[in-house]
Design a protein that fits this description.
Layout: H1 22-75, E1 111-114, E2 126-133, E3 155-163, E4 169-175, E5 184-187, E6 190-199, E7 209-211, H2 213-218, E8 225-235, E9 252-260
Antiparallel strand pairs: 1-2, 2-3, 3-4, 4-5, 6-7, 6-8, 8-9
Length: 265
């Protein structure tokens, strides 16, 4: 019988296995943290940029809506009840009225304002627009607050635009000679509003001069107004944060709109 080699009974040595040392693990964790922090910062920056762009877009949209409402209202200056294409001002339909800003409409003119274009904040220029609606399907015009005449009811509206003590562009509506409505805020952070009136001084049916309200009143030329140029100066320091406190020294961005009066086209 063959004898067994004693050495053959000894187990084979196992293959050596290596792993991460504590130092290597700490280095890996540190690198991972740096990568995570970098990605987090990128995400925060992208989110902040997105929010800023969204706020800016909303801010600009609010400005556009304010100007659209103002433009649509001013275009109807002197309108009297009837089919919208018939815009001949009627003295009897739009009699003289004294407004809250102490200005008085010239009978039939449909527009009047105050100021010399130099005021700021609540001392800015003011603008009043007078028109009439019959409350019919052919004549369903709206005032500066979005209201309209009741069905088959002839109604006069005085739309008054101004800047209040909180530097907001607001409009009020006086219906059928009653008390003015509560003010509706159209835009915030308005540093000033200045208004120039395009006047036909020679009765040539064309605008040949732009004058302030003070000059138009002095020259008794409210019946000669053909266009209105409105300049709103917005505080740009609050563009990305409209809720921030208003400052009178902030840089401004002007929005200028020239509006043709439909009754004079």
């Amino acid at each position: 019988m063959k004898s067994l080699n004693p050495l053959s009974r000894c187990p084979s040595p196992r293959t050596a296995q290596s792993g991460f040392s504590l130092v290597e693990l700490m280095v890996a964790v540190t690198i991972g943290l740096f990568i995570t922090l970098g990605l987090s910062q990128i995400f925060i920056n992208m989110y902040s940029t997105s929010q800023s762009q969204s706020s800016l877009s909303q801010y600009q949209e609010n400005q556009r809506l304010a100007l659209v409402m103002l433009m649509n209202t001013v275009e109807l200056t002197g309108y009297t009840a009837g089919i919208p294409t018939s815009l001949t001002p009627a003295v009897t339909a739009l009699p003289a009225v004294t407004n809250a800003d102490t200005s008085t409409f010239t009978p039939g003119a449909g527009i009047v304002g105050t100021g010399a274009g130099t005021g700021t904040g609540s001392t800015s220029d003011t603008l009043n627009v007078y028109f009439q609606s019959a409350g019919s399907n052919l004549d369903q015009i709206i005032n500066c607050q979005g209201g309209s005449a009741s069905a088959s009811t002839t109604t006069t509206f005085i739309n008054s635009f101004s800047i209040n003590a909180n530097n907001q562009l607001v409009c009020t509506v006086t219906t059928n000679g009653g008390a003015p409505s509560s003010a509706l805020v159209l835009a915030n952070n308005v540093t000033s509003m200045s208004i120039m009136y395009g006047v036909d001084t020679t009765n040539s049916k064309t605008t040949n001069a732009y004058l302030t309200a003070a000059d138009v009143t002095t020259g008794a030329m409210w019946m000669n107004i053909r266009t209105v140029q409105v300049t709103l100066n917005f505080c740009t320091a609050n563009v990305l944060n409209p809720a921030a406190a208003y400052t009178s020294t902030c840089p401004t961005t002007p929005w200028v709109q020239t509006i043709n009066l439909m009754s004079k086209t």
